[in-house]
Structure formats: structure tokens, C-alpha cells
Amino acid sequence: MRSTVMYFLLKFLFFIIIIIIIIIIIIIIIIIIIIIIIIITITIIIIIIIIIIIIIIIIIIIIIIIIVIVIIIIIIIIIIIIIIIIIIIIIIIIIIIIIIIIIIINIIINIIIIITTTTTIIIVIIVVVTIFILIIFLILLLLLITTTPLYYYYYYYYYYYYYYMFYYYYYYYYYYYYYYYYYYYYYYYYYYYYYYFYYYYYYYYYYYYYYFYYYYYYYYYYYYYYYYYYYYYYYYYFFYYYYYYYYFYNYHNYYYYYYYYYDDDYCYYYYYYYYYYYYYYYYYYYDYYNTTSTTTTTTTTTTTTTTTTTTTTTTTTTTTTTTTTSTTTTTTTSTITTTTTTTTTSSSIELLLYVLRQLLSFVLQRIKNVHTCLFKL
Questions:
Q1: What is the largest CA-CA distance in the chain?
Q2: Closest of 219, 253, 249, 254 to residue 233, by C-alpha
Q3: Membrane spanning segments where (predicted)?
């Protein structure tokens, strides 16, 4: 009696643990999907930020070009104004020279007229010399005032303009070189990061692809649905285990009644033997499950054996779909994958209902057997 209760509790605990494991697997799959969605949104945000930065840089460059053009236009206008001023000054100097020449000619004529008078010769000479000296002095002073500072000012301004333009061009070239170097460095860094990320992703994908191709040939064209098919695979073996367990239970029910008719003392011994035999069968089934996980051919054989049962018709359909996919193109594979997902969902619900129904019948039968055994004892 004690072994029977312990067996029943162990079976119930085993079933609860299986359900908890299934729930944990589903939660892990949901978390992985959420993480993938978060990564995709982050990459989209980064791309948008990079595009905005590039647009801002282009706008700044356009503004700088406009400023440079405006400065060049202003400088050209200033140079034109300076040239006009110089031309006006030259015209004024020419007019002054002409006036001076006219004055000199007039003075010479007056000297010729007045030269007859001897009394005024000395006075005229003195006046003419002084006037001539004053005129020369005024001309020199005018030239000194007008030409020299203007020439130096023009030369200084011209030199300053070229120096400023050279400095500005050098600064612009340095800025352009620095910007180009920064852009090149940024592009190299982005390319290196992208290459590293792609290499890491490719290596990770190749490793898992090779791993599933080597161990599970059945999942070769369904690597995107690996977790889902693994879940389905687990349920398939869960059903397979309960199917044989139900067969084994009915088989021992028959022997239980057979022993029961012969001897009443066999009841307790039978439960102990039954528990031990079940444990041995579970150990054998575990070894068998390990061999089917490591050998591709054995996995295919197990699927074919399950075809003999009427409940696993959906599993047989999935196996046929896998065989068809191995001979078709990649586009056909995507369509078949969608169909298989729908079929597997319905078969999983039916399988869960079947397992619950078998568990309920098992519990009721065990209660009936325990009650009968206790009554006889």
C-alpha cells in the first residue's frame, strides 16, 4: 500500500514537472522573440540618427559655402571701389598738373612783357622763383600726400587680402582634410563593426547550422523553427511514451487480475514488482531516446514505427512534408513550413488532451485497484 501511494505521487509529480518544463520552454521562446524585436528597433533608431547627422552636416557645408561666396563678393566690391578711387585721384593730379602748366605759361608771358622794364626785373625773378619753388613744393607735397600712403595702403591691403585668402584656403583645406579623415575613419570603423558583426553572426549561424545538420537531418530545412519543432518533437515522444505506458499498464492489469485470482498475498508483492518493472522500462526507454537523438537513421525509424498508431497521423504528415522539402527549392520550403506550423499546433492540442484523458483513466484505475487490494487484505 505504501509503495502504491508513493508510486502514484511520483507519477503525479513527474507529470507536473513535465508541464512546468513545457511552460518554461514557451516563456524562453517568447523572451527570445522580444529580444529580437528590441534589437531590430534599436538598429532602426541608430540608422535614423545617422541619416539626421548626415543631413545636418550637409546643411552646415552649404551654409559655409554661401558665406565664402558672400565674402568673396564683398572683397571684389571693395577692390573695385579702391580702383575707382585711384582713378579719380589720378584724374585730379592730371588736372592739377595742367593748371600748373597754364600758370607757368602765363607767368612766362608776363615775364616777357615785363622784361622790358628794368626796374622790375629783379622783383619778377624773385617772384617767379618763389612761385616756381612753391609750385614744386606743392606738387611734391601733393604727391607725397596722395600717392605714397595710397600706394602703401593699397599694397598693404593687397598683401593682407592675399594673406587672409591663403590663410582661409589653408584653414578650409585643413578642415576639409580633417573632415575627410574623420569621415574615412568613421566609415572604416562602421565597416569594421559591420564586418565583425556579420562575421560573428555568420560563424554563429554556421555553427548551429552544422550542428543541426549533423545531428538532426530531419530539421535541415526548418532551422528557423528549431525551437518550435523541438517542442513538437518532445511532445511526440511524450505521447509515444504514454502510448507504450498505457499498453504496458493494460498488460499488467491483466496479470494483476491473474495473480489476484490465485493468491491474496500476491497483492503487495505485485505492486512492488510492478513499480520495479516500470522503473526498468523507463530506464530502457531513456537509453532508447538517447540513441535516437544521436543517430539520424534511428530517428527516422522511430517516426515510421509511430505511423502504425492511429493517433499519430499528424506526425506522419509532418514526416512526409520533410521528405518533399528535401527535393524542392527554397521558396517551396517556406510555404511548407507555414503549413506544418498550423498542423503541429492542432496536433499538440489533441496530444495534450489525449495525455490528460489517459492520466485521468490511469488515476481512476489505480484507485480502483488499491481499493480492491485493501478490501481483500
A1: 188
A2: 219
A3: 12-40, 46-79, 86-115, 121-145, 157-176, 196-216, 228-248, 268-286
Give dist(CA 105, CA 103) in Å, integer.
5
Give the list of residues 6+ apart from residue 97 with CB closer than 8 angstroms, or none.
139
Confidence (pLDDT) at 367: 65
User: In this structure, is the dihedral angle defined by the CA atoms of residues 74, 80, 83 and 87, taken in order, positive or negative?
Assistant: negative
Cα dihedral 39, 45, 47, 50 sign: negative
- C-alpha angle 158-76-159 in degrees, rounded to nearest 5: 10
Per-residue pLDDT of 201-211, as tens digits, reads 666 666 665 55
The CA-CA-CA angle for residues 236, 241, 247, to 5°, reads 130
CA–CA gap between residue 120 and residue 114 (Å, rounded) = 7
131 — pLDDT class (breaks 50, 70, 90): confident
How far is Cα 318 from Cα 83, in angstroms, rounded to an integer? 94
Q: Retrieve residue 308's grid coordinates.
A: 502504425
Of 64-78, 165-179, 194-208, 287-301, where does mean pLDDT reach its minimum? Answer: 287-301
Q: Say how far apart CA 238 and CA 347 lie, in whole Å.
A: 13
Residues contacting 129, CB < 8 A, separation 6+: none
Number of H helices, E strands in the chain: 7, 0
What CA–CA distance (Å, rounded) separates 183 from 48? 18
C-alpha cell at 183: 569621415
- 21 vs 13: CA distance, rounded Å: 12
Query: Of 307, 57, 52, 314, which Cα lies nearest the Cα of 183?
Result: 57
Cα–Cα nearest to 211, from 199, 200, 226: 226
- Residue among 29, 18, 24, 36 nearest 226 (CA): 29
